[in-house]
User: Fold this.
Amino acid sequence: MKQWCKDRVVYQIYPRSFQDLNGDGIGDLPGITSRLPALKELGIGIIWLSPVYPSPNADNGYDISDYCAINPEFGTMADMDALLATAAALDIKIVLDLVINHTSDEHEWFQKSREKDSDYADYYIWRPAKPDGGPPNNWTSFFAEDCWTFDEMRGEYYLHLFAKKQPDLNYANPKVLEEVKKLMRFWLDKGVAGFRCDVITIIWKSSLADGEKRLFLHGLEHYLARPEMHEILHTLHEEVLADYDCFTVGETVFATPAMGRELTDEARGELDMIFSFEHMETDQYLVKWLKRRFSVKRLGAALARWQNALEWNANYLENHDQPRSVGRFANDKKHWEQSAKMLCTLLFSLRGTPFVYQGEEIGMTNFDFTALEQLDDVESKNMDALLRSWHLPKWLRWRMIRKSSRDNARTPMQWDASDNAGFTTGTPWLGVNGNYRKINVESQMNDPFSVRSYYKDMIQVRACSETLRYGTFKLLDSKRGLLVYERKFEGRHAIVLLNFRGRKRAVGYAGQVVISSAGREMFDGVLLPYEGVILNEGVRT
Ligand code: TEU
Ligand code: CA
Assistant:
């Protein structure tokens, strides 16, 4: 992996919710360009843009209808070129989202594929109905709906592991991979520095036989991390990526450490980094809709497993699919500020590349919506329909969806205390969180003790510390709301102490303070509520 991928900090932008400049209520590329200097000031070196391509927005851009163009809602190709040029001038690299498991049903390939004698007939996974007219197998979708839809024109069913409007591409047809190579080169030639590869572990379907009985996702065993998937990634690496100064990070749903090692093994040449999910499952039973109390013990175990399994990790606590971390893993009420800073201490003291999601750096919280009607996300809506079909009452459905909905992280970015948080002068496409007068970038920029200023400090601390960047990871404690680990590099070490509870906590360590989220310069062995501290050459007392 290139050195710059290890040393830089990544910032994820969800363009629809970042900054609207033309007043239509939808974030846009000129809006992003206008905010690049602020991201530079924060210390960001790489930006990952969630999809910016034309899309009917069944899944907000993750349903692409043209891979080599810009969604007119976001601007033009000239706006994209301007963004790339401004970023380059600031030495910020831009990484795009590569969504190649599926396209939109409005993509030209799919429309042509509906005719059996077209050149595109085998671009997607089409199968005839069963003799009784039913779908070809018993698989279920990621989005709580059927994963086969019958197309009248073609007279067959097509497979979609996500929404109906996201038909899966057929990688058994070599032409599909040729198309993918072409579109990757198109963007790399424009100067993008790599890709975040959407649901990349499930692109190859090795059989369409019925799936085993499981609680959810029937059929998973037929398409999760098949050998051909590894071959495809290797081909893309050798034939495309190797020619450019770029990197890839895979969104590897259901990855195990063993799978992760194969995917990121440099000798095999597939991906540079992967996103694992285990630490995101520390507050749920089996599926995200069944929330339970977050456990530091489970978090510690998940982190230790992944930190030690892979040579290098892609570390994150938030993205556009996950609820906000501050309320989820800590406290977004009385201890909001301390909690956000403590989680920042965690994120930047792990071994790997840190990924910050827009708004995380100011401690943005989950939405304050009160009813399903205020949501936009297809996943939440489908889930509600499914729960309704099980006759669950409305209050219970809302209770299950509220805490897990992806819209929690998709409310507009809170820039300042003016109307709509400075996100738009029009009507925002999704409601702004009512706490924007308290939580916003402008007020935090001017406050050296704000959450954002702490992120800035922490980014500098990491940049100056080889131990924090490259050191090994060893879990020392994860009991009763306390997380302690050691990072060691060339005979030097740092101890990270994190208090996940709202009470003071004696920890039995001493050392020189590198940084404390409570702003302390001396450490007396007692953590304050939700405090995070990094000690240089810390020792047990
Ligand atoms: O997410 C894949 C994925 O696994 C999620 O759908 C996950 O199951 C869910 O969000 C958990 O709440 C990727 C993208 O990140 C997501 O935004 C897309 O909707 C999805 O792929 C389809 O492209
Ligand atoms: Ca706009």
Summary: Residues 174-190 form the longest helix (17 residues). The mean pLDDT is 97. The chain has 16 helices and 20 strands. The two ends are 39 Å apart (CA to CA).
